[in-house]
Here is the input.
Amino acid sequence: MSETIIRADLVASHNAARKPDLERDYASLGERLDRRGIAIDAIRDKVEKFGVAIPSWGVGTGGTRFARFPGAGEPRDIFDKIEDCAVISQLTQATPTVSLHIPWDKADANRLKQAASRFGLGFDAMNSNTFSDTKDQKLSYKFGSLSHADAGTRRQAVEHNLECIEIGRTLGSKALTVWIGDGSNFPGQVNFAKAFERYLDAMRDIYAGLPDDWRLFTEHKMYEPAFYSTVVQDWGTNYIIAKELGDKAFCLVDLGHHAPNVNIEMIVSRLIQFGKLGGFHFNDSKYGDDDLDAGSIDPYRLFLVFNELVDAELSGAKGFNPAHMLDQSHNVTDPIESLMLSAVEVQRAYAQALLVDRKALDGFQEENDALMATQTLKAAYRTDVEPILAMARLRTGGAIDPVAAYREAGYRARVAAERPAVASGSGGIV
Ligand SMILES: [Mn+2]
Here is the structure.
């Protein structure tokens, strides 16, 4: 039995007060879904099994290019971060794993493993960092890392990634995510083809060090920190990388890393169709890589992404096994609250997508009935699935209302007293 951070009797009394209303709401929704030929318990079972990883860097307050305003009781190190992740996991029962960022989270791997398993947490994909310099680093990444003109700098970046794999092996991770900031700020600064070839060569060295049961995720991003050209800028380049590297290489889709108005769900479909969808960094955005809370700006887009995922899941698409991770930066909210609600939003999109009448949709598509086809999606999206999500939490030991339970428990005030404010050494935007 894993330890819990929020007292179990507090969660129990929180749930006891809300359970009668939830049961009525669940029964009522069950009746309505039954009329649509959907068994509510089957949807709930799938939701209970659905998990999304918490990024270790997400539990600290982020910042912008202009300033960072620290919050109270921020985690001082990776062990505090793991405790915050344990709270999120306990109350939502939707976040069974943590995704680490090296070197920000560097610590003795066995101690890390022990700290997480105390709370029943596992480790998702490891994340390398060659987009900033560390204090005692020999060669700088100011002008790039895996695509750098200098072979020694590329080698250093490759070795860092191999070290991330080594740490991950001890932790039980099964994937490495590589995102680089390499690119240029001025036309003519970099030869596009040469830079990409150097990147591919370096990635081949990393891929060669990947254990057989691991996957390599490459993450594209259109711009920032480079503002004229970026080496891994879009899903097309990302797909080329995954194809060039081999069967263990897949594309990671961060929802904030595309040009405005790009049809992300269609990119997702393409990657699924050709067996190269590795997983997601969920977040939301209005303008660029805003790293806002998942589902906070455009929940319909999140639903449409999940519509593609559920379609692949139900049709048994070959090799379909996407990793779900959050990747957000919290500037004005309590990061724990934002991450709990974001995990729930991702679950919500999944549950709604499970309600799509796919047979009817297929028929409307065949008949070119555009109006009814889109209404079929809307019917699923408009369904308030909150009773399903809350019931899943109740049954698995979480809180019916995670944010209310968290506030009732006074966790933030407690850690604020225990954790003196420190200047954060990490950013939040990846
Ligand atoms: Mn990301």
In short: The mean pLDDT is 96. The domain at 8-418 is CATH 3.20.20.150 (TIM Barrel). The chain has one domain: 8-418.
